[in-house]
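2024-03-11 09:14:02 INFO receiving multi-entity request
2024-03-11 09:14:02 INFO entity count = two
2024-03-11 09:14:03 INFO echoing inputs for audit
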Amino acid sequence: MTISTDKLLSLYRTMVLIRQCEEQLARSYAAGTITGACHTYVGEEAIATGVCAHLRHDDAVFSTHRGHGHALAKGVPPRELVAELFGRETGCSGGRGGSMHLFSPEVGMMGTSGIVGPCILQAAGAGYSFQLLETDQVGVAFFGDGAVGNGAFHEGINLATIYDLPVVFICENNMYATEVAFAYSARNTDVAGRAAGYGLHAEQVDGNDVVAVYEAAEEAVARARSGGGPSLMECRTYRTRVHAEGMGESGYRSQEEIDSWKARDPMVAFAKRVVEAGDLTDADLQAVDEEITEQVADAVTFATDSPWPDPATVADHIYGEGA
Amino acid sequence: MASGEMARREMTYTEAALEALTAAMVRDPTIFVLGEGIGERGGNFNTTKGLYQRFGPRRLRDTPICERGFVGLCTGAAMTGTRPIVDFMFIDFILDAVGELTNQIAKIQYMTSGRLKMPVLLRGCVGVGGGAATHHSGSYFPFFVNVPGFRVVVPTTPYDAKGLLATALRCDDPVLYLEHKSLLNVRGDVPEEDFAIPFGEARVCREGTDVTIVGVGPLVPKSLAAAESLAAEGISVEVIDPRTLAPLDMETILSSVGKTGKLLVADESFGPCGIGAEIAAQVMDQGFDDLAAPVRRLNGVHTPTPYSPPLEAAVVPSVEQVAVAVRELAAE
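2024-03-11 09:21:47 INFO inference complete, emitting structure
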């Protein structure tokens, strides 16, 4: 492992930020401050963290319904994320989006989505722009195993491959689409293995190991940036909370399975590893934990104190200014 | 702007649109076209003839047959600084991409409070004719008029084909540009110079005092033909081509109804929840006192499009049917 101490600390910081934000959002949902859907990323933090560590603000990320982690890792300020879920004017989508429609083009967060699949196509489209404009930007799609059976997976990956587009496709295989097992939805559950059928590079990595994700993403992003075409990364992981806040565990997975994955918590595993290796100390990590706790509390205060959107603006921005 | 002093030549509708596309691609290097057979082949309807040779393979790119896929791709492209054109060949194929259109393309500007634009042009050949049968004969524009976010353009003359395409390629909104198959080879005078026709400005194609016809697409030339024969019977018909259905120039329509008191909306596409229903409702709202008779609609038969020539002819409104409807209105 040749990752600098600063980078290790930064990876840890991002994972803790996602975790603490998610736990706060879950509490706010339970308190009724957040309405609608709230899908948390708890247990999967290593993936967004390891991938986005290689992205610049001008790279474009397209995400899913479980996208708070992608937004935070891409640089959406926690204040703007929390305010959006609180439905406030200061949210990253001005209160028009909520959890499943987080947009922050300023940092290259091109949307979480309530529809499974389009992010794959849109990331290919960002790659198309970057190739046409001859920049070294990269398009990235995050999607779950649930998208693999969708036509967008086939069409988007094929288009990106035949056009050699600078795109990285990240499949977060958490084994369940809502509450339907991937093992039920697919006879072949080897997502990375499917890449051979399209002719693009692919790798399967441990999605709970932030270092493994970081290293695989480094190669995939560099390939895209240098004109080497698209890649697919299958990150095996697990969602340890319910599909969406407010739901219960309906029996589609066993408590033993949940517990076994909780024991593989990506943040805890990372902390143990870097402390044992002598790269970071418990005190270093604790300082990050405290810093993030303050940041999340500040985000909640900011969101709570923010104004509601003005109903008079409800039909603004349906059309642009041109024509 | 258009001017009578410009040098004009006669050319086809398709040639006129190609001229606008070519000029836009010269001016704006972010424009690219995706579709099936639009590259070296130049498009099934010659919509991109010669452009591949001129602008190269990245700006004219053939696709696999995956409309949802390449419409979704164009969504992401428009979000990241380029201006995609999807050339569907037959617009019927757009239906495979309706989710990307209504859930994504139409909503991006709104969801981002205008921080992202959505300059996507969606073009294709529409309508009944030539025995194309039901999978190559649709129009479907009422879907898109119903969804907030789209501009829907239906040019009927070579002049409008050029001027409206020029506007579409400067517009930040997603535009459906619908080219009726019966109009593609129609010839007309077109200025050599670039010009743009603003959206939402109807054209009064023929002035009259007894009955107003609002025609859509091929029903504009059919209405003009009917108006000509009705004039011989002493019925004076005003014919309006709205040119864009979203936005819709109700002002011109209401002003005409204010003069004639009688309105027929003639459209080959389906009647229920169609543009005729919308225009009728708006006239009822805003021009009720001007009406001397109920608003009439003439639509294609509400059925899939059959193949056999006599069956196909039976589903679209004819010149004679337009004339009959006008006579009935005039007699009210």
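2024-03-11 09:21:48 INFO post-check: Chain A is about 45% helix and 10% strand.
2024-03-11 09:21:48 INFO post-check: The radius of gyration of chain A is 19 Å.
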